[in-house]
Design goal:
The complex is a heterodimer of chains A (106) and B (175). Chain A contains 4 helices and 3 strands. With 106 residues, chain A is α+β, with helices and mostly antiparallel strands. Chain A has a 3-stranded mixed beta sheet. Chain B is built from 5 helices and 6 strands; from the N terminus they run ββαβαβαββαα. The chains are: A alpha+beta (106), B alpha+beta (175). Chains A and B meet through α3 and β3 of A and β6 and α4 of B. Chain B: This is Glutaredoxin domain-containing protein.
Chain lengths: 106, 175
Amino acid sequence: MGSRGAAAAAALSRASRIRSKLQSALEATVLEVDDVSNQHAGHAAVRGSSDKETHFNVKIVSPKFEGQSLVKRHRIVYDLLADELQSGLHALSIVAKTPRETKPAQ
Amino acid sequence: MWLCSCAKPLTLQLQSRPPSSIHSHVRRVTVTTSTLSLRPSSTHVFTHNVHFQPKLKRASTTIRCSSALTPQLKSTLDKVITTNKVVLFMKGTKDFPQCGFSNTVVQILKSLNVPFEAIDILENDMLRQALKEYSSWPTFPQLYIEGEFFGGCDITVEAYQNGQLQELLEKAVLS
C-alpha cells in the first residue's frame, strides 16, 4: 500500500480504520467496532479536547487468539492500533475471544 | 563542539505530593555542557598577531529523548510494584476516580477489601507516558498484582466475574 492508500485511510473514520486494521491482521470471524466517545465526553482526561472518536468498544473473535492469555490478546490489539492511540484514540474496551470460546454450550 | 538546536531541554516536573511517594522521585533535570577554547601558546603566535581569547561557552546541550521511561523512573516503578502487593495506576484517586474505567477497578478492589496502593497518573504526564512503555500498555487503569502486570479494566472485570481475581488476590495478600 503506497502513500495513496495511506491518504485514503486517513480520510476514513477512526472506526473504519480500526475495523480494517484489525480485520486484515486478525482474520476475525466476528468484528464489532463501536464509537462510544459520547459516553465519555467531559471526563477529566478528555475535557477541553476537540477530538471526537476517543473511546471505542471492540469485540473480536479470531483464531489467532488461540493459546494467548488475555493480556497478550489485548496487547496484540493495542499494537495493531498503535497509530490510532498516538493520534487521539483514548481508550479501548476489548473483548477478544477465539471461535472455540464463543461456541454455544451444548 | 556539539550543538543540538532542535529539541528543547528535557525537564521533568517535581511534584511532591504525599502520600504517593512516586512523584517525589521525578525531578527537574536539565543537561548543560560547557566548551572551552584554549589560548594557543606563545610559540604559535602568528606574524599577523591574531590573538585568540579564551571563551567560556555555556551551551545548553539538549538530548532528544524519545523515551519517557528514564532508568531512574524505571527503577522507581520497579520498587513501587514490588513493595506493594496490589498497585493500581489510575486516573484520579481511590476516593475520587476521574474515569469510569478506573472507578470500576477501584470499586472491585474495595468490594474485595483488598488493601492497594493507588497512583494518580493525571498528576504527572511524564509518569503517565513512562508507564505506557513500562507496562507495554497504552491505557489506564493498569493493575499490578505481586509485581506483575495483571491487566486493565476489561481484564480485571472478567477475572472478577469468573473468580480468578479473588483467587489471585487472596494468594497475594496471604503470602
